[in-house]
Amino acid sequence: MGVIAPEEILTLRQQRRAELQELKARGEKVIGYLCNYVPVEIIFAAGAVPVRLAQADYHSAVAGKELIRVDACPFCQSTLGKLNSDPIYQLLDGIVFVNTCDLMRRLPELAATRVKVPIFQIYLPRTAEPLPARITEFTRQLQRLADFLKNITGIEVDRANLIRAITIYNQLRAKLRTLEQFRPHPGFGLKTAEFFDLIALATLLPPAATGNLIDRIINQAPPPNRDEHTPRVLLAGSIIAESDRDIINLIEEQAVIVADVVCTGARFIAEDIHPGADPLNALACYYFNRIPCACRRPNDRLFQHIQQLIIERGVQGIVYQTLLYCDPWRFEARQLRVQTQLPMLEIDHDYSRQNYEQLRTRIEAFIELLRAKNK
Amino acid sequence: MIDLNINYQDPKPARISFEEWDDLFQRIPDALIEKFHYFPQNTEAWSKYLFPPQIFYIYGARHLRRLKFDNSLAALRLWGFINNESERLFRARQIGKKIIAVMGDLGPLAVLVHAFPDCVPFYPDCWWWTPFAMESTVLLDAAAQLGIGEATCYSRAALGAFAKHSYFPDPDLIFAATGASCDDYSGVESLVAKLTGNCIWVETPLRLPEERDALVNLLIEEYQRVIKALQELTGVQFTESMLHASISRTNQVRRLTANLRQLAYQQALLPALEMMLIEFGCLHCYSDINEWIEILKHLTATAEYRRQTNQPVLNPAALRLAWLTPPADPLLLTYVEDQDARLVATEYVINQALTLLDESQPALTAIALSHLNGSLNGAAHARAALLLSGAEANSAEGLIISGILGGSHCAMESRLIGDIVKASLKIPVLEFDVAPPHKEIDRQTRTRIDAFLELLRIRRCRKS
């Protein structure tokens, strides 16, 4: 028994799709965005409806291979495939990309061959040291984004709009953080699959609706469902798409995921923005400096963050899942193992379910190992 | 023919084997061998580099046995100089020069390093050929032990080379450029940074043509950090004139290279393998810019002589190919030429190192602008346009794209560029991934190349 029924999540998604259609019929604009580094606040402040494009599955990945090679990351393949097939993607009035990894930065050019809606690419410096020139450039990029959105919605992203958007999303993140902190406590009953689903809803539903849902969950406090001896796992690695819960579910059959550093998980909510006198610059600083994706250089802060979580949450082992050909995460796996000195299971996957039972065996064996260490 | 060929006349132009070069070398007078030294002004015995391929084979470059070489003295000089680079870098350290590793930007940062006296820049990136040259997976295995395994660009050999400490000296400074560049190499740089603990990151911005001025400003600030680090390392106070002098020498290299590209690709005066080495010389001049300029002049004189005497090294009527992305295995170039094809246009991901620096601009602006010409930091359409201009001008009949399984930009842009070229020039495209280091080209690849060239021959017949 979890904190939210899968049927409710499905219903909420379906209702939202219908709402988006109605909103579009009324002239509102729906903007899709990929990546944790897109400042959703700017989309909101421009009067558009932000929707994160984090759906991915095997069939759409196969469709995407018409444009890119088999050795491109499956998430990019799937995104290309979904542009012409997923019902929510069909509602978009514009798409915002960020050049984080090489594949993500090349995706807009390919997407442009598939869709007719305006596409915008934010240039985020890959180097992570916050040097003034880099922050200045990133702030300028965000102003370009605001101008791009104004052309779609007709609404100027001014200081008041931005502060309002920042406040709303800070509140949403704070609520999700509160919820997330229950994760290491088995008594609460929040599964990581549900937590990821709630994050996904937070990037689809209006912030207030997600907020109400989280309030309800926190107040319900469901009964305990795990004993204190359950192995405690940290989940790291590539993006985990909305329809991709296999690994999480397999882990949670026998262990508890007490923390994660996934961009569609806890990294989305890790910090707050302080608007200050110049909210656009504040957004630039926030997004530039947020707990880095493995693709940023240097990415030492990501490792420090993981070390902190390991200590705070008593992590006993790491499951490190990467999408096939996701170089930024794949290459750092060994470093993490060396630095943490914890047992670590590395898994490569591509949304195909053909190796599901092999995956189960590997995960079960890993958790058995953690159990043995616990004794 | 030229002053350098004292008492020695190049034989009729031809591509010759390893063994044939060994025989030919016996005819080169000792006085001529003595003439060529790296780090010019230096005439010490240790700085000679004119040796037959046999010498480098003994040192481990086993692939040389299987390649075909241009039979000119200038080409031998080129091969000797390039094969000698590891030794040259260690020697540079011994004689007090600073060794600066520049990684990832493929050209622009080396111009800054060259501005400082006694600083020797080199690109560890170029060690990606070493596993092929040595027919050995030692460097790739070392990279795998550090976290970068198979299905990744062969540039991971650079990480193995850092770990082994024997392919180049441990650098005094490492500049690692990253940004709108390939993930594989950015991953290599990340692990090199962790391995050495001594790395300065330099941003490579995404090329947005309408945003040029802002990106130039960003790059200038990045370069100022590079200059500051070099000043601190060397104790030399940087001046604008130092950089202008470096730009001027760099442009000399790039002009000579551009001329050689014309002579080779339009008139079949130099083989593709030597041309690839010449193009890549624009990155860091194989750690000795002054001698590299002399070698380029020698090659130019050789090619000019061949042009004047109407002695091309390749059959001018051979099938005309464009080539996208440098082949990690040089044997591929030898092979296509053996099948009576020749290269007439290339796009080897180093456009930023081939375009002239604008000497009318402030020095840092000129370097930043050349940086923004990069092959990999813009759109695939722009890269396709670069290739198209050469392919169209020289009437390419087919395009070969040699990729790497798992190479991030190959995965995303190869098909798009191939489609653009196919649609624009109406020529066939062959795309394949270069197989791991081995003494021969794998059968599948060979069969595909053979079939592709056969197709081009049939098309030519039909047209005529």
How would you describe what is shown here?
The complex is a heterodimer of chains A (375) and B (464). With 375 residues, chain A is α/β, with parallel strands linked by helices. Chain A is 49% helix and 11% strand. Chain A has helices at residues 6-25, 40-45, 58-64, 74-83, 102-111, 132-153, 159-180, 192-202, 207-220, 246-252, 279-289, 300-313, 327-330, 333-340, 356-374; strands at 30-33, 49-52, 94-98, 119-122, 232-237, 256-260, 317-323, 344-349. In chain A, the strands form 2 sheets. Chain A has a 4-stranded parallel beta sheet, sandwiched between helices. In chain A, strands 6-5-7-8 form a 4-stranded parallel beta sheet, sandwiched between helices. The longest helix of chain A has 22 residues, at 132-153. With 464 residues, chain B is of the alpha/beta class. Chain B has helices at residues 18-25, 30-33, 53-58, 73-83, 85-94, 108-114, 130-134, 138-146, 157-164, 183-196, 212-234, 240-267, 272-284, 289-308, 331-338, 351-354, 363-371, 380-393, 408-425, 443-463; strands at residues 15-17, 68-70, 98-103, 119-122, 173-179, 200-204, 319-324, 341-347, 398-403, 429-433. Chain B has a 4-stranded parallel beta sheet with strand order 4-3-5-6, with helices on both faces. A 4-stranded parallel beta sheet of chain B has the order 8-7-9-10, sandwiched between helices. A two-stranded antiparallel ribbon of chain B has the order 1-2. In chain B, helix 6 (108-114) runs antiparallel to helix 17 and helix 18 (380-393) crosses helix 19 (408-425). The radius of gyration of chain B is 21 Å and the shape is globular. The relative contact order of chain B is 0.12. The mean pLDDT of chain B is 96. The interface between A and B is large, with 42 and 53 residues. Chain A: It holds the Pfam family HGD-D. Chain A: Belongs to the FldB/FldC dehydratase alpha/beta subunit family. Chain A: This is 2-hydroxyacyl-CoA dehydratase.
